[in-house]
Fold TetR/AcrR family transcriptional regulator.
Amino acid sequence: MTRAPNPDRRRDASRKATLAAALELCVERGYAAVTVDAIATRAGVSKATIYRWWPAKSAIVLEAVDEAAPIPETFPDTGDLASDLHAWLSGILGVFHDPRLGPAFTGVLAESQLDANLAHQLRERLINHRVAQLDERMTKARKNSELAPDADLEVALDILHSPIYRRQVLHYPLPDDAYLTRLIALVMRAIGPTRAD
């Protein structure tokens, strides 16, 4: 007796093919030149299927990046805050440096500057829960006296992330490990337990 095809498995295969196609095309053509038509053709699915699942190209690419991004879902906690921050920021840089993910993430980031809804989706899907993990780790560090009791965590978070995104947006070379070490040391001097008042 022939077993009927599993429609859920077929849908999942089509979804994975679509996400893979979006990333491949971003590498080959650049994000701006990728179209839903091209993604559908590469994935072997219909445009109607794609539009049932995603409202636009940007949503496909955002989901693809989110699923493939190497940034850990939980913030590292080795007991050494500086080391944990270095690992975290290295994970963000890993997305930009990844030849498969970098063009896609950069494209979504650029488009989000002109599309408030996409910016909201970017924050909701990729950014907010990860920043919450960082904030939780920093709050714990403050409670454990790794940081000053009045350390301004909101400003510290902005300082830690800003150089990466500023350099990416303005096409400067991205920070290397030595730069990250200097950046983290600067922040730790500013908000660490022995900082100068």
